[in-house]
Structure formats: C-alpha cells, structure tokens
Specification:
622 residues; alpha/beta; Alpha-Beta Plaits; Rossmann fold; Serine Threonine Protein Phosphatase 5, Tetratricopeptide repeat; 6-stranded mixed sheet; 27 helices
Length: 622
C-alpha cells in the first residue's frame, strides 16, 4: 500500500561539508564549534533563506539543502563561498573553516521533511570531489544554468563516484581571480555581481491582418533575441523557451516569475506594402512598470537599422557595457538584400515546423535567398540544416558531401555561425570523422549554448558511437532547450531503456508523448511525431494507443522508410514478429547503408532475430 506522505519531486540539492573538520576540532574544539555556529548564523542560513532554499538536515560539520531553482542553488553556493573567503581574511590558514560544496539536479523521494534517493546521493558525492572553497556540480546543473551567471564552469570529465552505479559528468565552478586572492583589503575590490541583468523577448504580435505575415514578425523577434544573446553582460532566455508563450494571453509579472528574469520585451509588427511599423516596450518584471516604449515607422529596407536601434536602446536602459567586439557584431547586417532576408525568414519558419514537406519548402526559400545574395551565410546554413534533417528523419537521397560543402561555405562567409558548425559536425559524424565532428559541436556550443541542433546532432553522434550516457545527457539537454520538441525525448526513451534507467525512461516517454500529441494537432501530416509517439506509448504500457499511432504513421506516408523501420522496431518489441519482418522486407531493398547497419545491430530487433523468417531479412541486407 502506498504511503500518502511519500512522494517524488525534481529539485536542486546542495550538499556542503567543512574541510578537515576533525583536525580543526582536535586543535581547538570550543573555538571551531563557535566559529562554525557563527558562520551558519550570520551567513549560511541567511543566504539559503534569501535564495528560497530549505535546510533539509544538519550534520556536525555540514548540511544538506534543497532549492526550487537550480540558478538559486548555484547563486547561493557561490555567494556563501565568497562570504567565507571574506570572513577568512586575516585568519591563519590552519585555523580557517573552508567549505566544499556539491550541487545536483535530480529526482528525490520526499518523506516528511526529509529527502532521499539518487539525486541526493550524487550531490553528496560531488561535494566530496570539490576543492576546498570550491563547488562541484553535475552536468544537469551546468546545462540548466547556461550562461545566466557570471561564473566559469570547468569540465572535469566523467567521475566515478562512490556508490553511484554510473559515471557522472562533473564541472567545477571557477571564481574570478579577485575572489580567490581576497585578503584584508577586500573592501577595495570591485563588487562581484553574480546575477547578470536578465531578459525574455516575447514573440512580437503580427497585427498585419494577414496570418501569412507571421514569419516576418517571428523573424524580427528572433533576430533581436540573437543580437541580445551576443552580449556577454546580459542573460537572454532562449528563443525556444520564449516561444512557448506565443499566441497565449500573458501577464508580464507571471512570465518574469516563471522564467526568473528581471525584464520583459514585448511588441508588435505591422507590415503593409513596403512599410513596416514596429512597437516595442521594455517592462520591469516584478512591478510590471514600463521602462521604455517606442513606435517605429520605417521602409522595409531599413529593418536591420531598426532592429539595431531596439537592441542598443535595451542595452542602454539596462546599463550593460558592450565589449568592442560585441559592438561590431551587433551592428553587422546579415545581408544587404531585403528580399533575400524575407526569403530567409520564410525558410526559417518552415524549418521550425519539422515535417518532410516543410523541410523541402524551407530549402527552396533558403536557396532563393542565396540566389539573391550569394554571400548570405545564414541561408547556406539553413540549406545544410534542411538537408541534414531530410537525411536523418526521412532517409532522403541527400549527399553528405553536399552538406559538408554547404556548411563549409557558410563558415567561410561567417566563421562564428553556430548552426553552420553544428551542421558541419553532423556531416563529419556521418562520414565517421568523429574527433573532427566533436570539435565542431563544441565550437557550436561555445558560440550558442541554446542551439537545439548542436545538442541534437551531438547526441546522435554519441549514440552512433555507443556512448549512451553522453547521448542521453545531450538528448535531454536538447529537450530542455526546445520545450515544444518531441523528437529528443522520444529518441531518449530507447536509450534510457538500454541503460536500465526505467523511471527516467517513463518520465521522458510521458512528456515526449504529450509534446508529440500537441504536434499532431497542429500538423496531422507529421508521420515522425506519430511513430516516435508510438515508441513512447509502448514504454508507458499503453499498447492499444501505441499500435494506433504506429499504423497512423504508415498511413500518413506509406513510403517513409524511417517510419517503416521504427514501426518494425515497435512490433519487434511487442512480440508481433511477422508484422515487424514484413516491414523490414519492404524497407531493405531501398534502405541506406546506415539503416542496414541499424538492422544488424539495433537491440530493439533482438526479439525477432531467431524467427524462422529472419534469414530473409539477412539476405536482403547483403
């Protein structure tokens, strides 16, 4: 019988411990005890409360706390460590009380006021590998914080932690040098601002009276987000997260609270003929008060200058200092041809819809942009992305060499284009040039930590190399970056099953199916959402619905080879061997080399390998 007092939740856990506490107590028991109580009373407890945390339990020389926000947990830990540095100024090294801290984001069991489980255990073990005065965090924490805080995260690789049955990717938090060397003249140091000014740019409303103009208002919104994201002194909510509010009535204060940002930019776009009218207002999130509002009436050819003006106005109002190189990058127009820009925006809109027909349309739009402006780097990257998705998701007859050449062309024109690095990384991984591919993915991350394609393509590359733990982490990261994407979570389901992580598998399946269901309401022709959704439903034990979705995928596009393969895997796992083999026999004569390799090695097909008809499949493999 289930105990109603026990439940589970996802939470940020902070574990802390005093370094060499026993030695300190042995030297001066009364003094050490009094100093530790003073540090807790005057600094630690107050900061935990300030950042909405809760002390779960105390040990003689440490504590365990939980926070509803990962950012709050990391900010609190960094603030406490800074405070300890200041409090230790002038104290002999051998008498200093120094803390090690570990932070993890994980699922915990809640019983009364206590928490248990793997999420807690990982935090405690991370604390044990932190340096004195330092903080060690899991990859989940690093990915969720992103670039929101002025802290440097150093990747210390996969760690084998005591009593944890899998390696854990860990990062150490590196403090600015002024903090590591803080001394009796600390008051003369520059104040350390942990939290950057933070802003969410909500999708600008299309008030043109023509739904077909939606791509244009979206394009202006996305370009403002892109420009603001290039500013190191500003945290900007990712495009995909901001767009979860598209078309919904929102209260600015609630959005500010949900996204934990201080400022909101909202606006509208009206495009008529060769003129455009843009309104924009910057709102303070907590009070809802307007800091600035303006209306711009311009010729369409002035659209880049308009966007630049809005960006600089925001920077001025938030008192953010631009670095010299940032001034150059922000003021640079992507193309001098407005018509090419319009085709590019339309292509980007189609690309975000993620169906086969829309990939084809998007590629056509990007090609038109390139025809009008042969130096338009982002349009080349768009073509490469379309080809990548057509190849990956629909087994289209696309040249990998062509993707390599198109991505290289984009990078030749604009070396700092994150999506081009991601596309090049994918093409290299398909050519099995893995070390070069990883370098491109890492470069894409460095340029744009919120680029969905970088995480998704990187995850796929790790999966094909058999690095399932890293693939799982990156697919989860991709799903977090893009809250409306169903693909990453439903691919993740099979990986988590292979890793034996049953509970995480069901969580991913539940959320992935919900996202796929929303996608099919918007775009009923999306066969990929249907067959991946069938995988998720099967993982949840909803077999009747899973079969309906599998057959729906085949009905939407009977010639979709990837749909046939995935549905064959589904029937294999569900014990319908003849149906699975029928689909493989249909598929294999026209299958790509990569699909044939999946048939050879995919564990989902293991249940049918001993079937009397499977030799026919092997014969077709060649």
């Amino acid at each position: 019988m289930n105990d109603p007092t026990v439940h589970r939740r996802l939470t940020a856990i902070l574990a802390a411990d005093v370094v060499t506490y026993s030695r300190l107590m042995g030297r001066d028991e009364a003094g050490t005890h009094a100093a530790w109580k003073s540090h807790r009373r005057e600094l630690i407890d107050a900061k935990i409360a300030e950042y909405e945390g809760r002390i779960v339990k105390l040990t003689g020389d440490g504590f365990l706390a939980e926070f509803p926000s990962v950012v709050n947990a990391v900010t609190c830990a960094a603030t406490v460590q800074r405070g300890m540095l200041e409090r230790n100024a002038g104290v002999p090294q051998r008498s200093r009380i120094e803390l090690r801290m570990g932070i993890n984001l994980g699922d915990v069991i809640v019983e009364g006021d206590d928490i248990f489980g793997d999420g807690v255990n990982v935090a405690v073990r991370l604390e044990s590998i932190a340096t004195p005065g330092g903080i060690a965090v899991s990859a989940a924490v690093r990915d969720n914080v992103g670039n929101r805080l002025d802290l440097r995260f150093e990747d210390i690789g996969e760690q084998t932690l005591k009593n944890i049955d899998r390696p854990v990717r860990a990062y150490s938090i590196d403090f600015p040098p002024s903090l590591r060397t803080i001394g009796s003249d600390a008051g003369a140091q520059e104040p350390w601002e942990i939290e950057k000014p933070s802003i969410a740019v909500l999708p600008f409303n299309n008030i043109s009276g023509d739904p077909e103009q939606e791509y244009f208002s979206d394009g202006i919104t996305e370009d403002i987000i892109t420009d603001l994201s290039k500013i190191s002194g500003l945290f900007v909510v990712a495009r995909n997260t901001a767009y979860t509010y598209k078309g919904k009535p929102v209260k600015v204060q609630q959005v500010s609270q949900d996204l934990r940002v201080s400022f909101i930019l909202e606006g509208s776009v009206r495009k008529v003929g060769s003129r455009v009218r843009v309104t924009a207002q910057l709102v303070e999130g907590r009070s809802g008060g307007h800091l600035w509002a303006d209306r711009y009436d311009r010729d369409l050819i002035d659209i880049f200058a308009l966007q630049d003006e809005i960006t600089h106005t925001i920077v001025d109002h938030l008192k953010v200092k631009l670095l010299p190189e940032e001034k150059k990058v922000i003021g640079r127009a992507p193309t001098g041809n407005f018509e090419a820009y319009a085709y590019y925006l339309r292509g980007r809109q189609f690309l975000h819809w993620h169906t086969k027909s829309h990939y084809v349309l998007a590629k056509r739009m990007f090609a038109m942009a390139v025809e009008l402006d042969p130096l338009y780097a982002r349009a080349y990257a768009g073509i490469a992305d379309c080809d990548s998705f057509l190849f990956l998701h629909y087994n289209a007859d696309v040249s990998i060499d062509g993707i390599l050449a198109t991505s290289a062309k984009a990078l030749e024109l604009e070396s700092g284009l994150a999506e081009a690095h991601a596309s090049l990384g994918l093409a290299l991984s398909l050519r099995e040039r893995h070390s070069e591919a990883m370098a491109e993915f890492e470069q894409a991350f460095a340029l744009d930590p919120n680029l969905f394609e970088a995480s998704y393509f990187y995850a796929r590359a790790c999966f094909t190399q058999g690095n399932l733990d890293e693939a799982a982490r990156l697919f989860q990261r991709a799903a977090d970056i893009k809250p409306d994407d169903y693909q990453a979570l439903l691919v993740l389901v099979n990986i988590l099953r292979s890793l034996g992580r049953e509970q995480e598998m069901k969580m991913a399946a539940r959320e992935g199916v919900a996202r796929a269901e929303r996608e099919l309401i918007l775009r009923p022709e999306n066969s990929r959402a249907a067959y991946l959704g069938a995988v998720g439903l099967a993982a949840l034990g909803e077999l009747d619905r899973a079969k309906e979705w599998a057959e729906r995928a085949l009905a939407i596009d009977p010639d979709d080879r990837l749909a046939k393969y995935n549905v064959a895997c589904f029937y294999s796992l569900e014990g319908e061997a003849d149906r699975a083999i029928d689909l493989l026999v249909e598929l294999l004569p026209r299958a790509t080399h990569e699909t044939k390799r999946w048939v050879k090695y995919d564990s989902d097909l293991d249940p049918i390998r001993s079937h009397p008809r499977f030799p026919k499949v092997l014969e077709l493999l060649g």
